[in-house]
Amino acid sequence: MANLLVVDDELGMRQFLTHLLQREGHVVRVAENGREALELLREQAPDLIISDIRMPDMDGVDLLRAARESLPEVEVIMMTAFANVDTAREAFLLGAYDFVQKPFDNDLLKETVTRALEKISLIKEKEALLEENKALIQGQRTRGKLGNIIGRSKRMLALYQMIETVAQVQSTVLVTGESGTGKELVARAIHDLSPRAEKPFVSVNCGAFTETLLESELFGYVKGSFTGANANRKGLFEAANSGTIFLDEIGEMSPAMQVKLLRVLQERKVRPVGATEEITVDTRVIAATNRDLASMVSANTFREDLYYRISVIPIELPPLRERAEDISELANHFVQKFCAPTGRILSVSENAMRLLERYSWPGNVRELEHTIERAVALEGTHSIEPERLPEKISNYNPYRVAEAMEFPEEGINLTAHLDQLEKTYVLEALRRTAGNQTNAAELLGLSVRSLRHLLDKHGARALTAQMRDERRGPDSTPRRRATDQGPRRRAEDTGEFAAGAGDGN
């Protein structure tokens, strides 16, 4: 059954065609001229128009022209008792399906209508298949590129949509989130779904290099620019040309490197160390950090202009504790991953899974992955049981902190409380390490630079020297007073203390 529109200025012909076509099972509407037909077209698009050519007000050829403009896919059969070659040629040029001369044979008209509708049906089927194939290909592509990012929670579904959208533009992206949330996986997925997918994806940890080494890594160097530079070396920006560079831990970048990176982002040019000429690069930048860059901007430890340059599109990854509904899927994924090399078949018992879902996962997905890897290695049966999990997970009590905490009836200044708590942990880490900043930073899971920022924030930098003096004892050579001039002042200005071997910086 199809929706047909019959257009003819003769009442008898309209009635005849309506009767004939309704007997074939079609729904038929009628109009006595082209203008009336156009009004009906606006109300509902028909599958096929059967129209006379010679009509008052608006003839069939004008109707055909107007119908094709608004409904390019509609088929039109033209009828006339006054056919001529020129009229037929014009009708076919405008896209008419066929031309029927009055008086016509009923069977011939029905056959012409059937063939026109078959053509329409084939076109619709082809379009549906193309859309289905397009959706299938896109789905396969998306699943393939996002396959390493696991989770079906609302937060993760929103993240997938963001990744797919951001991948199609060239703007700089800043990925934030706690350690272990999968920032590099997100960056790689954005690259793989982008038009740059066939070009290089280059990753660099900005916190793993000194300022000098990071500059040469990012921008390259020329032969003879420094000791050991025996040949020209291409930098990572140039290596990622036409592709994507992922700057992980960008919050650890020194102020001097921040300036140089800002210029690269603005000018799209890099200058290798020791070179006099710049190299133009077309590299998309995705940055990531687990630090609060906005707070660092306020503290003047991160450039404001660079912050806004890299955070054109911010993406925040939720910690695992905020998407506990994804834990079971993640756990099963990692079980399969670590069983695959040996062909083992393992599952996670109901009791063990309950413990995994209850735990807070401060190390996020990375911690869960390592936990499952350990359990798979230790489990000798076909099911991971609670005893294969670390004690901190099997004995975890999510209410322990809450039970031990006192909450005043009058309320609490949360900001001040958290600042005090932060200071307490920093000082305790320094006390346990006898003022060694390197070891204290390791206890706190921070870089030394971040620890020094906190020491300055809480006015506690001088305590490190005091703690080291206490470690020496009263008989040791006294340290030079902070008010003294000379080498001591110069050492402090560089953040170094002549306190003996092994002291942190």
Number of domains: 4
Overall 3D geometry? Answer: elongated
Number of strands: 16
The profile of the biggest β sheet is:
5 strands, parallel
CATH superfamily of the largest domain: P-loop containing nucleotide triphosphate hydrolases
- CATH fold label of the largest domain: Rossmann fold
User: Architecture of the largest domain, according to CATH?
Assistant: 3-Layer(aba) Sandwich
Query: DSSP strand (E) fraction?
Result: 5-15%
Structural class: alpha/beta
**CA-CA gap between termini:** 83 Å
How does this structure look, described?
The structure is a single chain. The chain is an alpha/beta fold. The protein has four domains: 3-122, 3-Layer(aba) Sandwich (Rossmann fold), CATH 3.40.50.2300; 154-316, 3-Layer(aba) Sandwich (Rossmann fold); 320-394, Helicase, Ruva Protein, domain 3, CATH 1.10.8; 414-493, Arc Repressor Mutant, subunit A (Orthogonal Bundle), CATH 1.10.10. It is 49% helix and 12% strand. Strands 2-1-3-4-5 form a five-stranded parallel beta sheet, with helices on both faces. A hairpin with an 8-residue loop joins strand 11 (269-270) and strand 12. Helix 2 runs parallel beside helix 3 and helix 10 packs across helix 12. The radius of gyration is 37 Å and the shape is elongated. The N and C termini lie far apart (83 Å). The model is unreliable at 139-144 and 476-505 (pLDDT under 50).
